[in-house]
Amino acid sequence: MGSSPSIFRFISTIFPWLFFFSILFLMGSLFWGLFLAPTDYKQGDAYRIIFIHVPSAILGQSGYIFMAVFGFICLVWRVKVAGMIVRSIAPVGASFTLLALVSGSIWGKPTWGTWWVWDARLTSTLILFFLYIAIISLFSVIESKQKADRAGSILALVGVAIIPIIKKSVDWWQTLHQSSTFSLSSSPSMTADMYLPLLSCVLAFYLIFLVIVLSRMKLEIVQRERSTNWVKDFYS
Amino acid sequence: MNNRSNLTQWMLLILKKDLLLSYRRAATYMTPLIFFLIVVTLFPLALGPDKSLLSTLSPAIIWVTALLASLLAVESIFQEDYRDGTLDYFFISGEPIFILIFIKVLGHWMVTGVPLLIAALLSSLILFMSKDIIISLFISLFLGSFSLSLLGALGGALSLGRSAILSAIIVLPLSVPILLLGSATVFSAINYSDYSVYLFYMGAILSLAIPGLSLATVEAIKLNYE
Asked: Which of A5, A219, B53, B72 is the most buried (most CB within 10 A)?
């Protein structure tokens, strides 16, 4: 456990299965949400973008938390693979955050009548996106991969300490965004036939996130160990 | 000699060295000051000389400029010490390094942050800020600029030997809460409402930032010694 070759082999074995399962699951969930779920009485079909918007926003945030957790592991126990995970998550999380921002502004146009407002949630998501960009640019600037991993981990950790403060500090602004669609502690405020496809979409997005991160990790391992014998053996 | 006084000696030594160096080289404290004044001057030139507009915008202008100035000033804080080997001595001193790094940032803030406060007072005059709110501006800048210096030190450590723009990209998103709280302090002072709650938050951030960011900065500097 823990060495790059065994992790690489493990990812390679499960990857095809996971890939097809996730794609099917995603397509099923999106079909459920976009076609089968009932139309909202107030927003009409425009609300259906929720099945993209909410999962990608959730993934943008949890991606950052995953990054901080693995960054902590990378810094404290010097686990190289944790650093690779941080590096693999960063662009994926950034993409999901961007997707949340873009889908949100597409949703905002018909419902709020504007593409963008300086609302607390939108602003903190935008700043989350900037934090991702900062980490990605740090990764791309530092040549030594392991140094870059640790530098990015430091930044991810500091960022995760600051995110609640950012949220708190932007919360004072008058907010237009509705409160969280669902939480673990309270019962859902939507009907079950809208709520269940949304939950399914969130799970599907998590799976897709995992698939992309794993494939990036595979690439990362091969790139770093391209001169070793086991990589040559694997591809010969 | 016991351990405690040894650490105190180190701290005093670092502080003395940094203060003396900046005293001998006026550029270290003058450059951020001049930068601040020039940028503040640019705003009326771009916005027009309308007195009421400027005085409405003045808290935002002063805070954004102070943010940029203090980050730019602190960006190269470790560069010279890294090059001439002073930082090596921090690491072999056997003392807790994050305290030494904190003292370094403190010394830097004393020579850059304090002039910024004076510059902010000057620019509050040219932006027609009313006199009653200057005290809120002063306190919020006092607390905020130190947090910004600590953040900037982390950025400088992570981008040691690299471009200044990288350090800015790293630090600017993280500095958002300080900017929000700082300008909220002044804006609520303008509305004659109680602004102490924002100052408490800023103080809380500062007291978290002192140990947290010092430790992170040490970790970031260590990357250059491998």
From this structure: B72
